[in-house]
Amino acid sequence: EGKGKRRNPLHDFKKTGELMLIKVNKTLEVKTKLLNTTEQCAKRCSRNKGLSFTCKAFAYDRVTKRCHWLSFNSLTNGVRKKQDHAFDLYEKKDYVRNCIIGKGADYKGTISVTKSGIQCQAWNSMIPHEH
């Protein structure tokens, strides 16, 4: 918390070792580049720097030192998981966690039903209830 200390960009990611995501849906986007550290990959993913899509995850190839930024994560339709000893998967916590903070205006998780099983109303909809 002192001056000069930088926050580790990996804190925003959930790591799963030895896992790669394979896109079955061809419209999902991936970009790769050689980078020396997972921290560099995380920083670019968090800032969406040089990416034409919102980065939701990245996979780091420890052998080739190549970062694979993904427009999807393990919860996205059209994606399958593949065990791969060369890769570590890092998914943005905002897109894989299912907790609501405050009023939920910034919620990016996957829950779309109430505790009792009723389909949630879209944030931009005033039907069937007004906000």
From TrEMBL:
<dbReference type="InterPro" id="IPR003609">
    <property type="entry name" value="Pan_app"/>
</dbReference>
<protein>
    <submittedName>
        <fullName>HGF factor</fullName>
    </submittedName>
</protein>
<dbReference type="Pfam" id="PF00051">
    <property type="entry name" value="Kringle"/>
</dbReference>
<dbReference type="Pfam" id="PF00024">
    <property type="entry name" value="PAN_1"/>
</dbReference>
<dbReference type="InterPro" id="IPR050759">
    <property type="entry name" value="Serine_protease_kringle"/>
</dbReference>
<feature type="domain" description="Kringle">
    <location>
        <begin position="98"/>
        <end position="131"/>
    </location>
</feature>
<dbReference type="InterPro" id="IPR000001">
    <property type="entry name" value="Kringle"/>
</dbReference>
<dbReference type="GO" id="GO:0004175">
    <property type="term" value="F:endopeptidase activity"/>
</dbReference>
<keyword id="KW-1015">Disulfide bond</keyword>
<keyword id="KW-0420">Kringle</keyword>
<dbReference type="GO" id="GO:0005615">
    <property type="term" value="C:extracellular space"/>
</dbReference>
<dbReference type="GO" id="GO:0005102">
    <property type="term" value="F:signaling receptor binding"/>
</dbReference>
<feature type="domain" description="Apple">
    <location>
        <begin position="8"/>
        <end position="94"/>
    </location>
</feature>
<dbReference type="InterPro" id="IPR038178">
    <property type="entry name" value="Kringle_sf"/>
</dbReference>
<dbReference type="InterPro" id="IPR013806">
    <property type="entry name" value="Kringle-like"/>
</dbReference>
